[in-house]
């Protein structure tokens, strides 16, 4: 099928849920990706902050290929070495003691919330405005954006209390004897790259400790080096009770997890939760390779340095472009808030050979692979300058 036929076939066979960009991507390498017409793009969105090592990283490809030749799937009825190895490594790198593997960010949050409810025996979850936690009925309820849940309003789970993001007073008011958990993104991604005050997460941690509440951080978008440290909550020096992850964890394979402290993990007993695919040997082999590369190639340092460079260049564009209201972010999760809708800029940038995203209507979001170089950033800035 040619490109046009492929797009028409998608229209015919797929449930109509995505507004896709009008290109069919075919192959990639590093930051570069090519469509079926042979046009080359620099990918500054990395599959919604997933491809942390870029496309076709040789060590990830090698790990997946080798594992595929040995064993792809066995179910959680049996032990598998890549899953156990990755669990140990992640526990050693974080303040958590236990892991549960999932297949997506929503499933990670779903499990995290179930664990908090089961552990505390309570019924209420505090969530924040502009948050994004997923599309299952439970996680869309936790999501602080009406447009995603409005069609299902009669069927949403009970017990979710939404408070304004970055408002500790609102959390204090919302806490009751029934509060099981507070779930928060350390930095909101989908909601517009929103950064809380320095004391927001530490204050939440304190409130949780004082009131016997489970502190859940959703690091689905911010995790695995995206914001500089391995996990964004480290920026604020807090130790949550549960963390949900996905996206960057496997370098592109569908994988997620939630991690918990020993104490909170006790909430689940055999039979309380499960998954057929989660933690399979193939995705875990990929995740082990991702961790190897992140540390051996010092990509967390590259993320901090290139994030600072990209931010500085974007701030520089403000001199010539009044349309930019604010540049904000951490590491390589950067939002450029415009004073008008941003969709048309995404289209023009794509035509110029750059994949970028717009979220929250007017925030251009940049989340390139953590391998991005100064030269690639310079090219983006030249194009963006012209387009704005
Ligand atoms: C913070 C956050 N949580 C959860 C999700 C849902 O992840 P998934 O689409 O893998 O279910 C996303 C997706 O963008 C996210 O950004």
Please, could you describe this protein's structure?
The protein has 388 residues and is an alpha/beta fold. It is built from 14 helices and 15 strands. α4 (81-93) packs parallel to α11 (281-296) and α12 (299-317) runs parallel beside α14. It starts with a helix and ends with a helix. The structure holds pyridoxal-5'-phosphate (PLP). The site of pyridoxal-5'-phosphate has 15 residues, from α5.
Produce a short descriptive summary.
The protein has 388 residues and is α/β, with parallel strands linked by helices. The chain contains 14 helices and 15 strands. The strands form 3 sheets. Strands 4-10-9-8-7-5-6 form a 7-stranded mixed beta sheet, with helices on both faces. The chain has a 4-stranded mixed beta sheet with strand order 1-2-3-13. Strands 11-12-15-14 form a 4-stranded antiparallel beta sheet, with helices on one face.
How much of the residues is beta strand, in percent? 15-25%
Ligands (ions, cofactors included): pyridoxal-5'-phosphate
How many helices in DSSP terms?
Answer: 14
Annotated CATH topology of the largest domain = Aspartate Aminotransferase, domain 2
**CATH C-level name of the largest domain:** Alpha Beta
Provide the spatial order of strands within the biggest beta sheet: 4-10-9-8-7-5-6
Number of strands: 15
Largest sheet: 7 strands, mixed
Low-confidence region ranges: none
Compute the average pLDDT: 98
Given the helix and strand composition, which structural class is it? alpha/beta
């Amino acid at each position: 099928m040619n490109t046009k036929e492929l797009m028409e076939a998608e229209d015919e066979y797929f449930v109509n849920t995505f507004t896709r960009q009008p290109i069919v991507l075919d192959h990639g390498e590093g930051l570069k990706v090519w469509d079926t017409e042979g046009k080359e793009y620099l990918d500054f969105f990395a599959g919604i902050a997933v491809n942390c090592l870029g496309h076709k990283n040789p060590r990830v490809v090698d790990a997946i290929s080798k594992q595929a030749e040995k064993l792809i799937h066995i179910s959680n009825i049996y032990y598998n070495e890549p899953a156990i190895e990755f669990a140990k490594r992640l526990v050693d790198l974080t303040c958590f003691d236990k892991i549960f593997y999932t297949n997506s960010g929503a499933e990670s949050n779903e499990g995290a919330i179930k664990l908090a409810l089961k552990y505390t025996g309570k019924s209420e979850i505090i969530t924040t405005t502009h948050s994004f936690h997923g599309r299952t009925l439970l996680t869309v309820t936790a999501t602080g954006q009406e447009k995603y849940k409005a069609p299902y309003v009669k069927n949403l789970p009970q017990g979710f209390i939404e408070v304004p993001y970055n408002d500790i007073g609102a959390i204090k008011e919302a806490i009751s004897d029934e509060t099981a958990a507070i779930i928060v993104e350390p930095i909101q991604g989908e909601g517009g790259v929103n950064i809380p005050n320095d004391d927001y997460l530490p204050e939440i941690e304190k409130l949780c400790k004082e009131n016997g509440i489970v502190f859940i951080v959703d690091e689905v978008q911010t995790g695995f080096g995206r914001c500089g440290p391995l996990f964004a909550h480290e920026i604020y020096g807090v130790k949550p009770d549960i963390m949900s992850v996905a996206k960057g964890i496997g370098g592109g394979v569908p994988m997620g997890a939630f991690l918990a402290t020993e104490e909170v993990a006790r909430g689940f007993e055999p039979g309380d939760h499960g998954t057929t695919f989660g933690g399979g040997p193939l995705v875990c082999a990929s995740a082990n390779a991702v961790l190897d590369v992140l540390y051996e190639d010092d990509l967390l340092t590259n993320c901090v340095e290139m994030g600072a460079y990209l931010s500085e260049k974007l701030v520089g564009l403000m001199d010539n472009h009044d349309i930019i209201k604010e540049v904000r972010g951490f590491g390589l999760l950067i939002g450029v808030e415009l004073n008008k809708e941003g969709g048309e800029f995404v289209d023009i940038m794509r035509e110029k050979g750059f994949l970028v995203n717009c979220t929250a209507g007017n925030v251009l979001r940049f989340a390139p692979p953590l391998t991005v170089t100064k030269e690639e950033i310079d090219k983006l800035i030249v194009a963006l300058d012209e387009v704005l």
